[in-house]
Amino acid sequence: MRILRAIFAHTSGRIGGAIVALYLLLAILGMLGLTPHNPLMQYRVDRLHAPDSAYWMGTDLFGRDVASRLMTGIGQSFTVAFFSVAFATLAGTVLGLAAAWFGRRWDGLLMRVMDVLLAFPAILLALLIVTVAGPGTWTSIVAIAIVYTPIFTRVVRGPALSLKAREFVDAARTFGSSSSYILTRHLLLNLVAPLTVQVTLALAWALLTEAGLSFLGLGTQPPAASLGLMLSDSRNLMETAPWLMIFPGLAIMVSILGFNLLGDALRDILDPKMRRSIA
Amino acid sequence: MNYLMRRLATFPLVLIGVSVLVFVAIRMVPGDSITAMLGTEAGLLTPAQRDALAAYFGIDQPWFIQYWRWVLGLLHGNLGISVTYGKPVLDVILERFPLTLELALLAMIIALAVGMPAGVFAATHNEKLSDLGVRVVAMIGQSTPNFVLALLIIYTLSAGFGVLPTMGAFSPLWQDPLRNLSQLLLPAVTLGFAFAASVTRISRSAMLDVLSDDYVRTARSKGASNRTVIWRHALPNALIPVVTLSGIEFGYLLGGAVIVEQIYALPGLGRMILDAILQRDYALVQGSVLFIAFNFMIVNLLVDLAYVALDPRIRLGER
Amino acid sequence: MMPLLSITDLRVGFGRNPEANEVVRGVGFDLAEGETLAIVGESGSGKSVTALSINRLVDYGGGRITGGSIKLRRADNSVFDLLTATEPQLTKIRGAEIGMIFQEPMTSLNPVLTIGTQIEESFRLHRGLTGRQATAAAKDALDRVRIPDAARRLEYTPNQLSGGMLQRVMIAMALACNPRLLIADEPTTALDVTVQAQIMALLAELKRETGMSMIFITHDIGLVAGIADKIMVMQGGEAVEQGELNQILDHPQHPYTQHLLHAVPHFASGRATRSDGRREQDKGTEPALKVDGLVVRFPVKSGFFGRASGAVHAVDGVDFDLMPGETLAIVGESGSGKSTTARAILGLVRSTRGTFSAGARKAAAEQSALPVQMVFQNPYASLNPRLSIASILAEPVIATGGRVNAQTRTKMAALLKRVGLPESSLERYPHEFSGGQRQRLCIARALMLNPSVVVLDEAVSALDVSVQARVLELLVELQREFGLAYLFISHDMAVVERIAHRIAVIYAGQIVEIGDATSVLSEPKHSYTKKLIAAVPTIDRRREHFELDTRQVPSLVRPLGFEPEPARWDEFGPDHRARVEA
Description:
The complex is a heterotrimer of chains A (279), B (319) and C (582). Chain A is 73% helix and 0% strand. Chain A is mainly α and 279 residues long. Chain B has 319 residues and is mainly alpha-helical. Chain B folds into 2 domains: 14-75, no CATH class; 90-310, MetI-like (MetI-like fold), CATH 1.10.3720. Chain B is 76% helix and 0% strand. Chain B has helices at 2-27, 33-38, 47-57, 63-75, 89-124, 129-142, 146-161, 177-211, 214-221, 226-254, 258-263, 269-278, 282-310, 312-315.
């Protein structure tokens, strides 16, 4: 509750929060099928229909309603983003804590493995994984999760190392607290704030990567709608039907903007000291 | 130089890791490369012809033997033969690399030339309207995917001015510099935009941090003017995060801008890899991924050298 | 003629609404040429803000001068109004007429520039010197602050010099252009006591040489006796009392000045030691803690494969025992191994050799299996900010396999009450408490397991002087009540004098002198102990002259397999011995 109030008091938090809330609403409506039209229905007579009161964002080459497809596409993108970030957070937290806690050899080994993964551009790594496993929603999720796991590992490891050296952990050791107690109550509990910030920002990256994968035809498969795919399809019709490009393009941009703004606000609120490490 | 030696020591380890990872991953792909290469014509091959082809490309052996052969070849500068191009992998890569390198350099120049002054300006006008303006633009810049920006640029140009970006056959810089720049300018702006936004944001926050440091106060107490304080005392200390970010971004750009190259129809590394992955051109994928990882590490090394030049504490291995 | 500096009714505020948020409220003083004014106060008194207002650096720290006047008489006797001056005018005053040095020499110099470049900058800005001339001037400046081998040091970057050396560099830089006023903002607070004495001596000497005026800001009223002509005491943004040095020190009028002078420990060369609970010889009681031949070494790795090439001998053969109800103070400067000793006893660092036995009173039923507990230096870092006080106090109980039941809760409440905090604190979080209150919480937590020994590692060093006095009082009361033995690690002789029964002086990882507190403090035998005691500032040592000494602490890095020679001791009475010096 206190956090919500603080977000509301923060200008970019307010804007970012509103955008994210709006998208969540659209995503849920899209997933429940509560769209203006059936996103898969091809209104053959109304092909490439310009935006008007019947088709708010026009129709595509097959006469499908762009607004409805946008809504289901948002649902699709958000599903992929949420699951992939959830997996990456989980894996990154476990690995980062392990690296910080066991130190020495384990730390070295784990961080070298992460270096290997980080030596690839995100989209290329995702591409490789998708190619190996075949395109589809779940492979996108797994691919994006693998891409962002090293980043979460680093985000957890650094602060975990410094927390481990703090005096309250020393104090806990002097009265013999168990490792699990120190890990959960002294380390993890203090990592919630930086993780929340990172999760929000990672959602923005995940949306970006998902859109990129679908744009290349390796994410969500047609006829299902996804923002990247819609944008990719719009390329040849750009001059005759610019709405096919503009609405999905803006939709992707604004969704990323929303999470970036919210992440920035959360960083200011939760963790002012983090500003230097990630920008 | 302990610090650099330590960094160098991890090089081969990461390279081996990357190569094994890619090698194993590629071989988990369903389907075989001969079918992928010849398409439907592969059905016309007799089993004997097939085996001969497989033996020619060395893909009839178990994966660890293939890996071993590949590593042996690698040590002789031989990355294998690309099945799609019928040429040595290294030749194919080096044909594409100049464009990617030039594009990455141009994007980084744009990013630094715009981002650093903007970041410093915003930091020194903290909480004023101009700072807010820079921050809003940077935020939007960072949130714009490059493929959305590319399409917007192309659309604006064609719908608004009736011009199309220069496409068609790519001409290298040394053959036709003007045509080359006209081909690469828009892609470079596209890639440089979000990059510049990140540079702006990070240099702003780094400057803000540094400007509240004690030694900045000391410089002011000596009577240094605001300009001296900013450029001579604060900026060198704020550069480290900017260098880190630029290094990472540049390293990624050297891996090829897959989507932007697609949109602008540029024959760069990114598109080549995408094609190679889709064509199951094992040798090319392996070779180029290793090449990219190698480049990335070279860039990391350059970044480390920059750290060493910038900060005497790192030079002495204290950080 | 107008004095050098004249300040009247200065008001400084912070934040969006500086008028409503004033931290300096109507401060005024005059400073004559060649005179030194000491501004004394605790944190938050507004003393530093007052100083930063003089050269208007406060503008860059988010502050705004909301009222009053600051006037400086320049060399040509014209009067310069610092409040209405423009920024370009101010840059000509700063460094040229007003120099400044700060509290943290380590962070006050630019880490990426050589110290030569940084000193040359002053000459470049105000004298227009460049190139070789500037370098030569910088070398002279370093010579002036008695830095040996100045020409070579110009090439150093700040990380290559010790804190004391860096503060000398700061002084060289501030005095480069012979300003007529030097503002020194807590210039020795971050330094060891012997280094502090050196810096104070240097400042006094330079003041004599140049005839400059000085404003010396400090929280330690004992420190000003040697250097100030006048004192201004600040509290809560106001100057509560000001006057001549002797008048303030001998006849303080304001209750706060009296409090600063009397409630706060001042070093009295062993005359203020405790009279209760002294060790009685050979009564046959077993010690609460016995440390035998403690050695802690950290390997130094070098080369490509990180092979150990030597070791840091952090603690090199320390023995002592500690009786129930007794306080043993371990005194030393930074890097002496005093904290490592404490951490080794608690198992926070692995000891290379040596034995401990703690458990004289383990026979008692309520005694826990962990008879030694610890209170750390930094009250802000030693409590987990995300846990409530109840969880924090319960942790030792949970850790030792206990249950949090009604009995535990009664105990938590009782201990809180005992350390002077309300029972309602249980529901609150660490950030709601002040530094002193947090240290009380840490003490309560350490007592949850009924320890027989409490290790206090610089436990009052981070606290303001008056808070410090009250926490010390509490510690003494608790000691009497629970029969606790304290191992009191500290660098502060004045504090140690108040609480210790016995004192061990540690230098370069070894105890050089140990014994009865009165005896050690009044008749120090080892040369290092003497040096340490001579360096302690006190209000009795007015205008005392210190010898400049540029010796450095010996390196603790030794080659592999190095063993120190066995210690030989000289006995000086029943409980006082010192290591024989080579």
